[in-house]
Amino acid sequence: MNNKDIRVGFVSLGCPKNQLDTEVMLGHLVKEGYEITPEETEADIIIINTCAFIESAKQESIDNILDIAWLKENANLKGIVVTGCLAERYRDEILKEIPEVDAVLGTGSVHEIAKAVEAVSKKQRFTSYLDKNLVELGGDRIVTTGDAYAYLKISEGCDNRCTYCAIPDIRGKFRSRPIDDLINEAKELCDMGIKEIIVIGQDTTAYGIDLYGEYNLPLLLSRLAKETEVQWLRILYCYPEKITDELIEEFKTNSKLVKYIDLPIQHINDKILKRMNRRGNSDTIKNAIKRLREIEGMVIRSTAIVGFPGETDEEFLELCQFIREVKFEHFGAFAYSREEGTPAYRLPDQIDDEIKQKREEIIMREQQSVYDELSSGQEGKIIRVLTEGYDNLEKRYIARAYTDAPEIDDLVFYQSKIKHSVGDFVSVRIDEIDDHNIYATEV
């Protein structure tokens, strides 16, 4: 059987960093001549790129594997390949517990995907767990996010060693990609018509420290703006203690860098931050936010963990009070997930799941009040949006403002008498904000 006769499907779970790995694997398979199909029921082999960051992500990955396994008995599916974080973290358990799986690739073996598919197509089992610290970063890819935006992964791994996090064990030590490689990839994305490049990594603010001996994110952003045709640059996964003067200055002077930052704080109480092994303390967080707020139009997204071992009612209320005061434009809370193999797993004073869930509900109600307050009075405001698609049923365009990142923040639905294409920038007037959706009309 020729490669072109083998139809391969993909299921990509988890974060944008994982999605980019999926795009690299797609690039390998297309290069080898395999046909890619979006229809799972038509696929001969399906690759499931999994997440395993927290318990809910692991369960979602397992559920997807079991759902796909059903197709082996009831459709044309002949093979299943499991890749990504779950594959790296649980390796032999996957083949043992789910015998329908035919191949497993760890996070260091993303470039072995064509070998895995070839083996499975010959009814052979295949496993590969190459050193995750030595995996080649980057590579040709098939962009799956459409024509408006794409992700640019500038680093891999993490050295922060937060006590609740399994990522360093799954993804390895922190390592940056050379700046010239990133510039070249960004140019290729722009040549494809991409208008927004979203810079990602486990810790984008640490970029360059391993290669150049200093934090070089500001330099990278400056060069991306000057040496490519990108219209919007956005950065995710920034750490408060690494918000340098140079990065602040880049936000102020780089016209292509949107005034948006993803700044996970995880908590505000010093005792909890220390138990989490977070760098810096509450003053570090408050100082970073204060400096960012001095930038006109700055939008801050953040996250926090509630129910961490030992968190008292008073410490939780301290976090709630901080959320009320700081007024993040976007904020998400997560109930602490006890992950085996992490230092926090062994900490005393673990909190009952019911209490954790209740705290998550309480703090998100607080954030909803903040969101409602910030959204009040926005009707009539003119904003510039990036068009991402068209809703044929509702007869309106789907877009985003600079204030919102894809997948996680608000969408703008606008009506227009003019025909637009994906990637068009349009000025619209806000008519209504309802349930985190913005409804508008082109002006």
Notes on the protein architecture:
By secondary structure, the protein is α/β, with parallel strands linked by helices. The protein has three domains: 3-128, Methylthiotransferase, N-terminal domain (Rossmann fold, 3-Layer(aba) Sandwich); 149-375, tm_1862 like domain (pyruvate-formate lyase- activating enzyme); 382-442, OB fold (Dihydrolipoamide Acetyltransferase, E2P) (Beta Barrel), CATH 2.40.50. It contains 14 helices and 19 strands. A hairpin with a 2-residue loop joins β18 and β19. α7 (179-191) runs parallel beside α9 and α9 (217-227) packs parallel to α10. The relative contact order is 0.08.
Key features of this structure:
six-stranded parallel β-sheet; globular; 3 domains; 23% strand; OB fold (Dihydrolipoamide Acetyltransferase, E2P); alpha/beta; pyruvate-formate lyase- activating enzyme; 443 residues; Rossmann fold
- What would you report as the Rg, rounded to the nearest angstrom? 22 Å
Low-confidence stretches: none
The CATH class label of the largest domain is: Alpha Beta
Helix content: 25-40%
The whole-number mean of residue pLDDT values reads 96
The fourth-level CATH homologous superfamily of the largest domain is tm_1862 like domain
| DSSP strand count | 19
Number of helices in the DSSP assignment: 14
CATH topology of the largest domain: pyruvate-formate lyase- activating enzyme
How much strand content do the residues show? 15-25%
Give the overall shape.
globular
Please name the CATH architecture of the largest domain. Answer: Alpha-Beta Horseshoe
- Biggest sheet statistics: 6 strands, parallel
